Amino acid sequence: MLAVYFALMICTALPVIALQAGIGPGFLAWLVFGMVMVKSLLLVDHFMEMKNAPRGWRLAAQMWAPVVILAVAGFHSIT
Amino acid sequence: MSYLILQPESDTKARQLPGDIAVWIFIFAELAVFGIMFIGFAVARSLDPATFHAGREVLHPWTGLLNTVALITASYLVASAVHQLRGRHSGAQWRLWLAVSVSFIYTAGKLYEYVNLYSQGYNLGTDTFFMFYFFLTFFHFMHVILGQVILIVLAVKVGNGDYDGSDMNGMESGASYWHMVDLVWLVLFPMIYVLA
């Protein structure tokens, strides 16, 4: 569980460090979307303990962030 | 003749929803509401990216990062407390109190940010970005406050010995709510502080 915690911390810090480093907005956006998806899956499976939940519930919990992120990314890409 | 009957026993035995099903219905309803608001934010941003970029420049990403670290740390402590309690080990109560304490970094940081922005003249009516910023973050802030109350109740009940390793329903339900608050922030933070 400590490993999951550190992974979440690294995934959180990466986009902010990239932003401070002046990375391009296009790459930054996709980095952020990717990190959010990874973090949400880690949180749902390990902290929420949905990895042991019935498959439908687990899938619903896992899919919330990716569905929202994909919608946000869709609108982000048209600007 | 003997037959080997293969049954997915361990799989079916292991698959249980943590906490009460009613809490999970509530959690999914909350996630749906937040999801719709996030998509609303993305639509508004796509219509007026310049306003959202200017608004994001006013915010401090380090404050948002500190809040994220506080919420993830609190989530880790809550998950760890559940593990301790389930394994009938000691240490669940101090983990919950520490989670409450760490979560106050978030509330303090958010209040500081609100006061700072208001003193600079930013409010709900400033522009579309700040309307979404105050509405979304304050709505989430209210959920964090409720989560803190739940964690305090859980810590007191653990201290009273109300939860043992066999009956974890209340503890798991409260913990799941707290993790939901954290999950929402994981999407909210980069959307407002990094991408906008």
Question: What does the secondary structure layout of this molecule look like, with pairings?
Answer:
The complex is a heterodimer of chains A (79) and B (196).
Chain A: H1 2-20, H2 25-47, H3 55-77
Chain B: H1 9-14, H2 21-47, H3 49-58, H4 61-86, H5 92-119, H6 128-159, H7 169-195
Helix pairs in contact in B: 2-3, 2-6, 2-7, 4-5, 4-7, 5-6, 6-7
Task: Describe this protein's structure.
The complex is a heterodimer of chains A (79) and B (196). With 79 residues, chain A is an all-alpha fold. Helix content of chain A is 82%, strand content 0%. The termini of chain A are far apart. Chain B is mainly alpha-helical and 196 residues long. Chain B has helices spanning 9-14, 21-47, 49-58, 61-86, 92-119, 128-159, 169-195. The mean pLDDT of chain B is 89. The interface between A and B is large, with 45 and 48 residues.
Helix vs. strand class of chain B:
mainly alpha
What percent of the residues of chain A sit in helical stretches (DSSP H or I)? over 70%
Number of helices of chain A: 3
Please tell me what the overall shape of chain B is: elongated
Rg of chain A (CA only): 14 Å
The number of E-state strands of chain B comes to 0
Q: Give the biggest beta sheet of chain A.
A: none
Rough outline of chain A: flat
Query: How many β strands of chain A by DSSP?
Result: 0
What Rg of chain B do the Cα atoms give? Answer: 20 Å
Unreliable parts of chain A:
none
Cα distance spanning the termini of chain A: 39 Å
- Secondary-structure-derived class of chain A: mainly alpha
> What is the helix/strand order of chain B?
HHHHHHH
The interface involving the most residues is between: A-B, 45 and 48 residues
Helical residue percent band of chain B:
over 70%
